[in-house]
Design a protein that fits this description.
The protein has 391 residues and is of the alpha/beta class. Helix content is 41%, strand content 17%. It is built from 15 helices and 15 strands. α7 links the parallel β10 (208-212) and β11 (240-245). α7 (221-235) packs parallel to α8 (250-261).
């Protein structure tokens, strides 16, 4: 079978890019990837070995891809006008992390048009996401956002009608779409992405906590640094805090740097290699994850797979699975900056006072993750089977 896989943009080392890359590598079918913007220097190098076709419809596609609002307006306008060679393929799979669904308004294969949904456009979906967006906007920007969201939602529902079946990366993501009325539950499946699991079961506890995530406000590195300042002043622990991640928003990164410079026992590691990340995980004492209602979340499972205690927010698609791990400390989700910072602070205290208990139990975390079978081979086979069954 030949599959046309559409991804609106391939621009970072993010979860959506990783997922389509791993599927294209492992699928038993012939997969061609079509995209409007491909930035090879910013994304996974493995894409160079895959069949990536850049649609040369407009020179602005790559220029606006890193600007949230400009990207939203541009792609919403351009995607419905693009014509893809669907007649050359047996099935079409749209990878959606916001905006990509509009491609199906003009391009689809009868009874064989599918979507893998990493997330509906969060800025126009669940109320907790809309609340997050609105808190940063004032005056005319607030009204413009409300109008744009209303217009987008009309086109979004029209586009979703053209998909025969939608696969989601978590139950949380599926609930977002169903609650908005985008899809009927009987036309959905949850297929968890894969996770790179190290070939080790346990490592010795090092002298730092690690938080791996892109530097952007929804990952909440600022809240963590504020909580760490308070925690370190009171307890003077024998470990540091290490923040690792790709640079996504330069202004936010500058804020994090300024705050880190005022914070004791903190190290920043932007844009690390896979080998360096492996060593950072291996030598950590515990791992954190703080993403705001994360769609799925690969990092928590990586922490567990290295046999480390996980200190994580109790929202997000990963939580259904990760909360059952032997050594997990939950952080209560909270929208308010100061309240969430306080929850992080108390979670750090809890780990500090019960450290040996969690370090001992964390020796079982790796085997727990392996028992979930969160491999990329499993993911590709399951998605192949679902597409094949429908076809």
């Amino acid at each position: 079978m030949k599959i046309l896989l559409f991804q609106a943009y391939i621009k970072t080392r993010g979860g959506a890019e990783r997922t389509i890359m791993e599927y294209a590598k492992r699928s038993k079918h012939d997969v061609d990837i079509y995209t409007l913007a491909y930035l090879p220097e910013q994304t996974f190098q493995e894409f160079k070995k895959l069949n990536v076709h850049v649609i040369k419809s407009n020179p602005l596609a790559e220029k606006v891809v890193n600007s949230f609002f400009a990207r939203g307006f541009f792609y919403s306008y351009v995607l419905p006008s693009i014509k893809l060679p669907v007649e050359d393929y047996d099935a079409m799979l749209v990878s959606l992390s916001g905006l990509g669904e509009f491609i199906a308004i003009r391009n689809r294969i009868p009874q064989r048009t599918f979507m893998y949904c990493h997330s509906p456009l969060r800025a126009a979906c669940a109320q907790y996401d809309i609340k997050w967006m609105q808190r940063k906007l004032t005056g005319i920007k607030r009204y413009a956002y409300d109008l744009a969201r209303a217009c987008y939602s009309i086109g979004e529902k029209l586009a979703w009608k053209h998909f025969n079946r939608v696969f989601f990366n978590s139950n949380l993501t599926k609930e977002r779409a169903i609650n908005k009325g985008l899809i009927a539950e009987e036309k959905t499946d949850v297929i968890y992405p894969g996770v790179d699991l190290p070939k080790i079961n346990h490592t010795e506890a090092g002298d730092y906590l690690i938080y791996v995530s892109r530097f952007t406000d929804m990952k909440r590195q600022r809240e963590l640094l504020k909580a760490w300042q308070r925690f370190y002043r009171k307890y003077k622990p024998d470990f540091k805090l290490v923040l690792v991640g790709a640079l996504e928003k330069q202004e936010y990164w500058k804020e994090v740097v300024r705050l880190a410079e005022k914070t004791p026992a903190v190290a920043l590691y932007p844009n690390v290699s896979s080998e360096d990340l492996h060593n950072l995980y291996k030598n950590a004492r515990a791992g954190l994850f703080l993403g705001y209602y994360e769609d799925f979340g690969i990092v928590p499972f990586e922490v567990l797979a290295y046999g480390k205690p996980l200190i994580a927010v109790d929202s997000g698609g990963f939580w259904d699975l990760a909360k059952k791990a032997p050594a997990v400390i939950p952080i209560k989700e909270e929208f308010d900056f100061n309240k969430f910072m306080s929850h992080i602070y108390h979670a750090l205290i809890h780990f500090w006072l019960n450290e040996q208990f969690y370090l001992e139990r964390a020796k079982q975390n790796a085997s727990f993750v392996h028992s979930l079978n969160l491999t990329w081979d499993r993911f590709a086979k399951e998605l192949d089977r679902k597409i094949g069954d429908e076809w």
